[in-house]
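Review session, final week

We close the course with one last complete record, chosen because it touches almost every idea we covered. It is Fatty acid desaturase, a protein from Flavobacterium endoglycinae with 357 residues. Go through it on your own first, then we will talk.
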Amino acid sequence: MKAKYFNKSEEEKIFFSALKEKVYEKFKDKNTSYGDARFWFKGVFWTIVCYTCYGFLFSDSISKMTFWLLYVVFQLSGLLIGFSFGHDASHNTAFKNKKANSVLHFYSFLTVGIDPMLWGLRHIRSHHLYANVEGSDIDIDKNPFLRLSPTHPWKPKHKYQVYYAPFVYMFTLLHSVFMSDWVYLFSNEYDWMKRGVPKFELYLRFILYKVFYFSLVLIFPILYTHFSWNFVTLTYLSASAFTSMIFIIMLVGTHFFDEADYPQPEGEFLEHTWAVHQLYTSCDWDADKGWARFLSGGSNCHAAHHLFPNICHTNYSEINAIIEETTREYKQPYHHKTLFEMMYSHFKHLYKMGKPD
């Protein structure tokens, strides 16, 4: 990763100081750094849904269709556990104790398949610092299928990416499970990301996590249900593809949308301060809707999360209103859309990126 330096604009610093003052004043009599009752209710709710459906998979009386439907709900609700618990745990905003956050983080990703420690390291040490900066934000790294940024080289196949992108997105989670995780763990290119974490701990947690994951989603259903191994495997693959699409729908447009900025720094210097950089590169969707926050774990309030990652996501609705008001007051950018508008903007962006420079 290439480290960059943010601009020290006094005007932008004044804006962020004013924003922080308003936010901390709003919550001066409330503990916002750790999970509250709303946080635990939501996470426990999805846990009950997830593992109740999982338990019914082993019933001798269910049909293939019922098994498939239960498995899809098991995978989807498992993903929502990750949104509700795992994201906050990675930022140490579920518990006050870091070890407790680490345990919750591990558990929250059990049905997702992406190694929680590696994901947390790249999420915090790369993406949260340098969103949408080529060479610094891993989430915007070049990939062989899609051109997501104007900093990526154009190829003729990208003319059609707006049409084939949904098929690519169906395999996002499987690609992470079977390829990306292994590259992040073993490639020396990502040593900067793993710095400070003992190799033994990284490898041990990785092995334990993959053993738990594959046992849960494949081995136990193959061994202890009355369905054939090939039907269970097909169910796993199709449910993963469906879950992957939901994952992408909720997240991909939060940074890859039509009006997003993809900073190309002059040397080592970026155009804006860190806080304003987050606003230029993030998009909220239905941030004022309770159902959206319930499903997304606050990821729909993306600006609030990037600006205040040390605050539990159940407080983002109040923070979001302050961000909207303060950005208008200080004439700073703020992107907000409905979920449909965000996805439309994302595909509009894909179409634009599919044209030759």
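Two points worth writing down before the exam:
Residues 10-353 form one domain.
The chain has a mean pLDDT of 93.
Good luck, everyone.
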